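Incident review: delayed structure delivery

Summary: a single-chain prediction request sat in the queue longer than the usual turnaround. Root cause was a stuck worker, restarted by the on-call engineer. No data loss occurred. The affected request and its eventual output are reproduced below so the record is complete for anyone auditing the incident later.

Affected input:
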Amino acid sequence: MLYPQRFSQFTREHADTLAALLCGLLLFFGWFALHLGWLGLAFLLLPAAYLIGGYESAREGLTTLFKEKELDVDLLMIVAAIGAASLGLWRREYHLIIDGAILILIFAISGALEGYAMQRTERSIRSLMSLTSDTARVLLQGREEEIPISQLKVGDEIVVKPGELIPTDGIILSGYSTLNQAAITGESLPVEKTVGAEVFAGTLNGYGALQIKVHKPAQSSLIQRVIRLVEQAQTEAPPSQEFIDRFEKGYAKVIVVAGILLATLPPFLWGWDWETTIYRALTFLVVASPCALMAAIMPTLLSGIANGARQGILFKNGAQLEKIGKVRAIAFDKTGTLTTGQLQVFQVISVGEYTQADVLKAAASVESYSEHPIGKAIVQAAGDLDLVGAIQVQAIPGQGIVGIAQEQQVIVGNAVFVQQYVTNLPEQLREIAQSLEQEGKTVVWVAQKRGAAEQGSRGAEVMGVIAIADEVRSQAAATITRLKQLGIEQIVMLTGDNEETAHSVAKAVGIDLVYAQLLPEDKLDVIRRLQQKYQTVAMVGDGINDAPALAQASVGIAMGISGSDVALETADIVLMADKLEKIAVAMHLGRRSQSIVKQNIVVALGFIMLLLVGNFLGSINLPIGVIGHEGSTVLVTLSGLRLLK
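Output delivered after worker restart:
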């Protein structure tokens, strides 16, 4: 049973090639029979060649004619071939039947080659589809049980063994491993993951067993969203392709009318004989057909989408690949885009007899009870220190936190809050703190006092300050430099943060124009003003507050890992690995795609004009016209596949 199945699958996958091969064999033997004068055998073999080689084109052409009431280039090819055969029978010049059969054969070979070319692009895109598991190993009452992915619920705990695909997005509950995320994010190196880290469906587990908690429905996983968006990208035609499609419908009608005029007027105008007239009219139908023009755009854009997907750049449709190459201005959100969005301890400064470790340890002892991002950053920085648990911890929102650790009261907060407990703030430390704040850092003061004390009672002494900063992404400055090299006319930063912090980050990455303290609607207004001046504007963001600006921008670019669901759904392009340098790669892909499309259109129109002139002057016959027409189509299609590299 295995061999019949394989044979059946082979014939389905290579049906066009097999049809072209059989058509070629029948054509050869038919020509040989004619050469020997065996007309009966020739008239048996040649119609079979017409039928087998031209069946698919005739079916598609007639379907388009009857269902859509439109003429199709496939139908024009068949009409030209049958016309040549009819002319050959009428004039008993049977070589014309061979010419028609050659037309059918070359058209069939061209269709097979184009099919293989497009399959290569689709395989590159659809390789994403094979990254999803069908089942997951779930822990139920202490036992492992395999269930379909569709039956997973939020809160389920699943087990992933070494070498297995992660079946759905989740949070690691126990275990340590390295995950290959190349298929999702484009990162070539495996990433270490341990308890608390998020993992994504479709990534490959390394050497460690993991226990994972499902934290979102399986259909909402990152890979499923990617698959849906890629499928959408394949089915949506960009504006340029829609224009070409509309052009083809009108152009086909013009060809038919012109073909009829060419088949009737030359004998009266130029004294051509009817055989030459009809033959030239049939050749005209072939060489004037816009097959190459139709293939000038979509293979190129699909190849660009596939190339981007391999590098962790997800284009939602071909229109965005076109637009990204035309961008003249780009706006960046700050937090989570130019920066990581995760606060970290930037610097610890101690005074007097205290060390930096003393300051950090004291602050972390009380901040370990806080849920504030600043507190979490301090605790994370003190991870290697031997922390002592604090008691009587009290947080005052927007000001600070106090508690007792090792019989000493610890006060952590802003300068105004800490001043309630100390006699005075050291002048030198105050100047350092002001300098850090001007650089965009958040400064936390740390003080302590022996024994418990009520708020407002003084006597505590300052231990030092801790500077907290949102870390600028390592590749941000290089990305801005590269965008300027690519000729982007204006780069701006949009943020809801204060002026000092905004300008500090902008200076670090090389952005000159900054808009700070913006609400979501303010970001929207800035994008509109940029569009009035630069027309095509890109916006890069990650949060819910960026969604309106992402939607308004000509091209919205979202951060795939740190980005919110709203931002991901609103954006046109998603950077799967949160790598800013991929923006320049996307723009380069967009510009290359536009360049290749323009080259293809010039080649396609050039071939059509050359063949039309050659046909009118009588210097080409029907087979040469077919070779030129189909050759240009294959050439343009293969040219579009250059973007796969």
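Verification: The mean pLDDT is 79.
Action items: add queue-age alerting; document worker restart procedure.
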